[in-house]
Amino acid sequence: MFMPKWVAILALPLAMSGCAVHYDGVHLGQNGQVVANMTPELQSNIKALETALISMSPNTISPAEAKAVAYDAYVYPMYLANDWNLTAPPSTHNTLRNFDKRKAGLCVDWARAMRARMRSKHLKTFDLYWGIAYQGNAWREHSTLIVTAKGKPFSSGIILDPWRDSGRLFWSRIPDDQRYPWKYFEGPG
């Protein structure tokens, strides 16, 4: 993409005005599992998501799978934020990423990484979808991972969005998200 030099000169100070994001106590273990300092708040957040995941289909969802999905949905983005040298807010990080000053961190990077992480679990009781909002709008388009109970419609899913809060997971049921009108883009898989 061609960008006039004057635009780059004006945008760079703005891009550099963000705040670095770092999650202490998060690292990759020997088996590829992300290990985190499990604060009471983090434990509570993971448990709340686990409960919400199971509630999508209590008779069919594996509690062990729900626990694994909830754990990685919270902890893996913290690892990625550190690895990607994340800057907050996301709009500032996007600018740095678009100027090749960061290796990843656009919403599509998060969606790809989260989907790959969840696919590596070979989930039997969940389907994974790529959700998109404002498709085609260069300033508003947003992608994320959507998780549903196996065989259930996209619209029944739970959004797993680490982009909007700079590596801190935002999740909700699709109808409850007041910020983005999610549409089916790709899935299940």
Summarize the helices and strands and which ones pair or pack.
Blueprint: H1 5-15, E1 19-20, E2 27-28, E3 34-35, H2 40-55, H3 63-83, E4 87-88, H4 90-98, H5 107-119, E5 126-133, E6 142-149, E7 158-161, E8 170-173, E9 183-186
Helix pairs in contact: 1-4, 2-3, 3-5
Q: Describe it for me?
A:
By secondary structure, this protein is an alpha+beta fold. Helix content is 37%, strand content 19%. A five-stranded antiparallel beta sheet has the order 8-7-6-5-9, covered by helices on one side. A two-stranded antiparallel sheet has the order 1-4. A hairpin with an 8-residue loop joins β6 and β7 (158-161).
Strand order of the largest sheet: 8-7-6-5-9
Overall pLDDT score: 89
Question: Mind describing the biggest β-sheet?
Answer: 5 strands, antiparallel
- Please provide the ordered H/E string of secondary-structure elements: HEEEHHEHHEEEEE
Uncertain stretches: none
Q: What fraction, in percent, of the residue positions are helical?
A: 25-40%
By secondary-structure content and strand pairing, the structural class works out as: alpha+beta
Overall 3D form = globular
- For the termini, the CA-CA separation is 32 Å
Strand content: 15-25%
DSSP summary: helix tally: 5
Number of strands: 9
Radius of gyration: 17 Å
